Structure formats: C-alpha cells, structure tokens
C-alpha cells in the first residue's frame, strides 16, 4: 500500500497552554481509506514518543520498511481501511514534518532550537482539531493510540467531547508516575551531557547523536520486560564464545541496545526528544482538580481501555485507576487486561488480540458502516 505524506500550514497564531504563541503551525499527516458519504467513519490514530504520521504502508516503491503500525492498519486489519478513513499526523514539537524545534522560526529565519516554546499534549490535540476542521470532519468515530498516543486520545475526549464518539486507550495513563518522569529526566540528561548539544544550537554543526542514542537505549529498556529480554537475549554473547574481560560489546543485549540507539539518531532530532518527553511529564488530566474523576465530568465518549500484564512502564494499576474514574462518571467503559510478555511494546505487537477487540468495539459502536465511500476533500479555503 503506497501512501503520500501531506502537510498543511495554518497561517494563524497558536496560543499554547504555557501562554506562549507560535505564529504559524505546520502539520504533517497521512490518510488511509476513504470517507463515507456522511463522513462518519473517521478514525484518528495518535502516535507515541518516537512515532510520526507514517503509520502504515510505504511512501514509495523503494521503501524497505513500512509504517510503524503496519500490522494494525490496512485492508482487513485491526483498523480496516476498507471500512474506515484513518488519519495520522505528526505532533507539534516533533521532527517528522510538523512544526518543532528544528523548524525555521519565521521571525528570525533560523531554526528555533531551544527558543521553541514548550508544548503540551493539550497543545498537540488543539492542532489536530485544526486538521480535522481542514479535512471537513465534524466528529470522529474513534481516537486511539498507545503510550503517549493514548494520552492524546484521553485529551481529545476531555477537550472536545462532542467531536469524539469513542476512545481506545492502549498501554497508557491519565498522568505520569514519578518513576516515569524520572526515567524521562535521565534520558534528557544524556542529551544535555553530549558536548555537541550546545544548549540546543547544533543545527549547523554535528548533532548530539551520542547523547540521543543513550536516551533511546534507556527508553528501549523500559519498553521491554524481563521475560522478553530473557527470551530474546538471555546472557548470550555477541560474536564471541567467551568473556573478553574488556569494555567492548560482549553481550547480545548490549549489541541490540547500541544498534537501536544509533539507528534512532538517523531519523530523530535530539531537541524534539526533549520537548516531547517534557510534554509527557506535564500531562496530568487531574491537575488542579479534586480528583481524576473530575476530569471526565463533561466527557461523552465510549471507552475501551487496554493494559498489558508485563508493561511496567504504564502498569495495569494505572489503567484500572483510569477506568474507575470513567465509571464514576457513568461513562460506557470496557476494560481488558491482555496477558503478554512483550512489556510496554505489547500494544504494537499483540495485534491479533487488538484486532478482535477493535472489531467488536467499533462494530457495536457503528454496525452500519458499510455504505459507499466518497473521496475526501483535502482543500480548505483558510487553513
């Protein structure tokens, strides 16, 4: 399946939660499938920290790697593009086509760097609403995502209750724990410690790839579980039969982490890593409220909340806390805990079980979505 990444630039100010203002915003996005006649079959997939708009398919016939959720998005898959119109966009603060710290500041003509204002999950969702208006879609059948994508889906349900019929929250939370904030800070410190970081001003010189690679290595450890690491690597040595008693890469798990860390530097911006992890740290739907339940007083969506038994980054108790808060507001909520050894990455890998849940959930929500589709209109007069 070939898909083209598109972009739209909104020539208007975006006032952020912090009070800062971006003079204009560009969003990169991709769409899959077609809108039906009454535009009621739209699904917004929201990506996690390292994701982007390219959720599935290939951008060209020369691509060797498909989108980040290829197993879940496409004809006959969990998010069936024969039936649904799927949207995925890159968040602001990112580095894959949307406005972020590597973007050119229209005022100075230079990359923003650390002069880029801090953004929040709510700010990300606000620009996604702009994109929805641009596409001429009044209401989403569902919003969904795992990890930070689930945070955005929750924010959608709270900020725009009339525009979301349902929300599927996968391996996520309504607020980060102290442990997760601590892990994010350690990863950021790895970037700060790289002399090439230069306080974020490195766009005309060597980037802080060493620090970013270590930050990604820390992240990968949190995405796996003890069982998955034991099964995948154990204590196997890499390309040697006995200990070398040195500091070269010896164990298979060391080799894997270094490979993943170095690969990440070829597609991601270190400053974007800082901004996105900070947005996750700030995310707390209960902030300033008596309880988490108070955050959902105006919500109207039907919810599917999914957790995974081996996910220690966003453990099941956080999903259960979220479910209790939803039920206190009388919201139609289904909770499923999936047995899995894949850790936090389970939401990306346990696709067969997810497909069953998605099919049942969406069929109950919209059983008659089989009408003839029409090509969506991507043109707006004043984006």
Defining traits:
disordered C terminus, two-stranded antiparallel sheet, 383 residues, single chain, eight-stranded mixed sheet, alpha/beta
Please characterize this protein's 3D structure.
The structure is a single chain. The chain is an alpha/beta fold. Helix content is 32%, strand content 15%. The chain has ten helices and 14 strands. An eight-stranded mixed β-sheet has the order 1-4-9-6-10-11-12-13, with helices on both faces. Strands 2-3 form a two-stranded antiparallel sheet. The longest helix is centred in the middle third of the chain and has 15 residues, at 178-192. It starts with 5 loop residues before the first strand and ends in a 9-residue tail after the last strand. Mean pLDDT is 94; it is low at 370-382.
Biggest sheet features: 8 strands, mixed
| Overall mean confidence score, pLDDT | 94
- State the assembly state of the protein chains: single chain
Overall SS class = alpha/beta
Number of continuous helical runs: 10
Topology, number of strands: 14
Q: Please give the order of strands in the largest beta sheet.
A: 1-4-9-6-10-11-12-13
Give the CA-based shape. Answer: globular
Give the CA-CA distance, first to last residue.
28 Å
Overall helicity: 25-40%
Encode the helix/strand succession as letters.
EEEEEEEEEHEHEHHHHHEHEHHE
Percentage of residues in DSSP E strands: 15-25%
Query: Rounded to an integer, what's the Rg over CA atoms?
Result: 21 Å
Q: Segments where pLDDT lies below 50 for 5+ residues?
A: 370-382
